[in-house]
């Protein structure tokens, strides 16, 4: 075990394991994962018995993609009973890659004993049976408390297992069920199934999975139409590949918030270790890395997806997000423009471009992009969210008259959508227009979503500017309790508190707002904290 120096100020040998370990910890804190990885690798090499180094090395190896370091660290942690809950999955993937079916079965048994991820066991065992040469379908016990979780993934893998055996009669209904369970276009799953079907002569069924008007699917559709399925995508999946797709799907499913995002990255990385040649897995991994704050690695993974391949369009879309998150906004916008200009580009590509342009304060360009996204729908079927995006861009671009028309249309389409009601109501309150109508919109929004601090703030501020101070102060206090670091909410609260004579508390709220304020807002907050409220210092 590594120990910190007992004597304050004692020197540390630059060549020691401790020095490398501490350098890795500092790099972790500074957001330099590449340096952290190299440092942990050196530390583990210099002190292979250190569990502290092994644990750090394990997590960093999964983030950065060092398979051998991950396996080495896992083995050390396992010897002391400290293997993280996803470590067994890492070892299963390694056993499947080596076609060591006996070891893989033993590890799945351990997975069940550990309870973590036990619901995956029936599907993994079915893939192992394929490798062993005596196929057994996934046996999901309906009485198992996690049976519903296993069933979520069973149809996709029953389809893939059936395709691997050439059993199209069993595969096709399972494909339909699997796609029905997915939310959204499911382009990656469609591409996977289409490649497998086309390779088995089911060209018509393969093309049926690939809508003609989807640019993300155009390359695959053209290849299949010409009788050229991808070389790799047409082969039956190996057990390691099936296992990898299972983990990647789980990784995407659980990565819905910050509490599980890091675990999702680790699962997706383990999937990529098991099947490094599968572009679909790189797309998932790039997305999760970027969303998890590791955008440099997101760029790296997205670039591994061949742009001219079947998954190229999906990989390029993830590359846009990773470049933008890495601060390379010019490259991101240029690539997003190219993708949006492609024939039959979907609404998602235009929304991606519009969002980037709005963040770059090109509100006119953003509005045009959101309009292009709307053009992908029939006039009566335009989603309210696209109208909200356009209205927001027009409003921020000082084109309020146009924005109001668009936002009112969104409100007619979605009269019970609190986000729309809030935006339309607050924008009018800011301009002191239609105050009674705007206040009514905000009251409806708050009733629909009472726990949303932003909406609560909007209503409280509307009550303040319409003179209802008795209602405004408690409403704004509630908003600040829900979002204590929000600049606008704290400034609104401070202004309201000052108006009712609670001067000390008002200054406290303004100071809280000033912590994260920038530009004119910071100057305004500093002035009224020092001098008190004046008309020229009022918040919007």
Ends: how far apart?
A: 58 Å
* Shape designation: globular
Task: Indicate the structural class.
Answer: mainly alpha
Round the mean pLDDT to the nearest integer and report it. 90
Query: What is the alpha-carbon Rg in Å?
Result: 28 Å
Q: Which residues sit in consecutive blocks of at least 5 with pLDDT less than 50?
A: 1-13
- The oligomeric state of the chains shown is single chain
Helix content: 55-70%
Strand percent estimate: under 5%
How many helices does DSSP assign? Answer: 29
Biggest β-sheet description:
none
Number of strands: 0
Q: Strand-and-helix sequence, N→C?
A: HHHHHHHHHHHHHHHHHHHHHHHHHHHHH
Give the arrangement of secondary structure elements:
Elements: H1 17-29, H2 33-46, H3 51-64, H4 67-79, H5 87-97, H6 101-114, H7 121-132, H8 147-164, H9 168-181, H10 187-199, H11 203-208, H12 218-225, H13 239-254, H14 258-274, H15 279-291, H16 295-303, H17 312-325, H18 329-340, H19 347-359, H20 363-374, H21 384-396, H22 400-413, H23 418-430, H24 435-448, H25 453-465, H26 469-482, H27 487-499, H28 503-514, H29 519-531
Helix pairs in contact: 1-2, 2-3, 3-4, 4-5, 5-6, 5-13, 5-14, 6-7, 7-8, 7-13, 8-9, 8-13, 13-14, 13-15, 14-15, 15-16, 15-17, 16-17, 17-18, 18-19, 19-20, 20-21, 21-22, 22-23, 23-24, 23-25, 24-25, 25-26, 25-27, 26-27, 27-28, 28-29
């Amino acid at each position: 075990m590594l120990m910190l120096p007992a004597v304050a100020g004692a020197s540390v040998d630059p060549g020691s394991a401790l020095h490398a370990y501490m350098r890795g910890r500092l790099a972790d804190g500074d957001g330099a994962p590449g340096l952290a990885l190299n440092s942990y690798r050196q530390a583990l090499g210099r002190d292979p018995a250190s569990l502290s180094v092994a644990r750090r090395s394990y997590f960093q190896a999964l983030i950065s993609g060092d398979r051998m370091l991950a396996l080495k660290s896992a083995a050390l942690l396992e010897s002391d009973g400290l293997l993280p809950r996803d470590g067994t999955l890492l070892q299963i993937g390694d056993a499947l890659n080596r076609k060591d079916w006996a070891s893989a079965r033993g590890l799945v048994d351990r997975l069940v004993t550990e309870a973590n991820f036990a619901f995956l066991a029936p599907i993994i065992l079915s893939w192992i049976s394929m490798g062993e040469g005596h196929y057994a379908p996934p046996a999901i016990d309906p009485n198992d408390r996690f049976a519903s979780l296993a069933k979520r993934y069973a149809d996709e893998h029953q389809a893939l297992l059936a395709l691997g055996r050439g059993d199209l009669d069993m595969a096709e209904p399972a494909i339909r069920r699997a796609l029905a369970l997915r939310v959204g276009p499911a382009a990656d799953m469609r591409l996977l199934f289409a490649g497998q079907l086309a390779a088995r002569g089911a060209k018509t069924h393969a093309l049926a999975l690939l809508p003609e008007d989807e640019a993300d699917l155009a390359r695959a559709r053209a290849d299949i139409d010409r009788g050229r399925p991808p070389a790799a995508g047409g082969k039956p999946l190996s057990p390691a590949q099936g296992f990898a797709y299972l983990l990647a799907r789980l990784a995407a499913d659980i990565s819905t918030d910050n509490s599980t995002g890091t675990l999702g990255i680790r699962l997706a990385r383990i999937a990529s270790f098991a099947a490094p040649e599968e572009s679909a897995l790189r797309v998932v991994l790039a997305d999760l890395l970027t969303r998890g704050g590791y955008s440099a690695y997101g760029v790296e993974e997205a670039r591994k997806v061949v742009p001219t391949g079947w998954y190229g369009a999906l990989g390029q879309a993830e590359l846009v997000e990773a470049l933008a998150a890495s601060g390379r906004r010019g490259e991101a916008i240029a690539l997003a423009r190219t993708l949006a200009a492609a024939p039959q580009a979907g609404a998602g590509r235009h929304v991606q471009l519009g969002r980037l342009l709005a963040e770059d304060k090109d509100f006119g360009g953003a509005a045009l992009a959101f309009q292009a996204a709307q053009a992908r729908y029939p006039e009566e079927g335009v989603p309210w969210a696209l109208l909200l995006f356009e209205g927001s861009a027009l409003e921020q671009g000082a084109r309020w008259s146009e924005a109001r028309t668009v936002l009112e249309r969104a409100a007619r389409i979605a009269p019970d959508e609190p986000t729309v009601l809030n935006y339309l109501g607050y924008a009018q309150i800011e301009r002191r227009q239609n105050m009674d109508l705007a206040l009514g919109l905000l009251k409806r929004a708050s009733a629909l979503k009472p726990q949303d601090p932003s909406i609560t703030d909007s209503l409280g501020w509307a009550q303040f500017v319409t003179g209802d101070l008795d209602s405004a102060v408690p409403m704004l206090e509630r908003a600040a309790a829900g979002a204590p670091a929000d600049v606008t909410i704290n400034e609104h609260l401070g202004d309201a508190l000052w108006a009712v004579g609670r001067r000390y508390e008002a200054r406290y709220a303004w100071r809280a707002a000033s912590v994260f304020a920038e530009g004119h807002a910071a100057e305004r907050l500093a002035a009224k904290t020092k001098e008190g409220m004046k008309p020229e210092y009022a918040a919007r």
